[in-house]
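Weekly structure sync, notes
Attendees: PL (lead), two postdocs, one rotation student
Agenda item 3: pending single-chain targets
PL asked that the sequence for the first pending target be pasted directly into the notes so everyone works from the same version. It is reproduced below exactly as submitted, 134 residues in total.
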Amino acid sequence: MVIPGFIPNTHLAMSLAEIGRDGGEDLQAGLHAAIFSAYFEHVLDIGRREVLLDIGERHGLLARAIEKAWDDGEYDARLSRFRRFALDLGVDSTPAAVICNELLLGVRPYRILKEAVERCLTRPGSPSDDHPDA
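Predicted structure, written out during the meeting:
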């Protein structure tokens, strides 16, 4: 994983991910992984249309359909609702993770995330109570 020296405008990438969500779990997972890989492995600007169009096309989407969704603002209202929801939870920056009811903001060492999951799994009423193998 590489931390690029720039921060892209991710609005179009988020819209592409929502196109994937509407296309089903497999498409969403593939697009999500490809967008993250483009940025964190290949240091590509995921704010650029051509980068995202290439990703979309590699996952079977038509470039003209992606561009139409972007140009029409088809996913803007949904993304705005997600943003408001995140703000209501106290998320005002990324990355962010909610583990059980614990909000972790910013880049955290793996150890911190692991400890939060362990705390979550040992609380009464935790997911491990529902799944004894967890």
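Discussion points:
- Residues 25-40 form the longest helix (16 residues).
- The first strand starts at residue 96 and ends at 99.
Action: rotation student to compare against the earlier draft before next sync.
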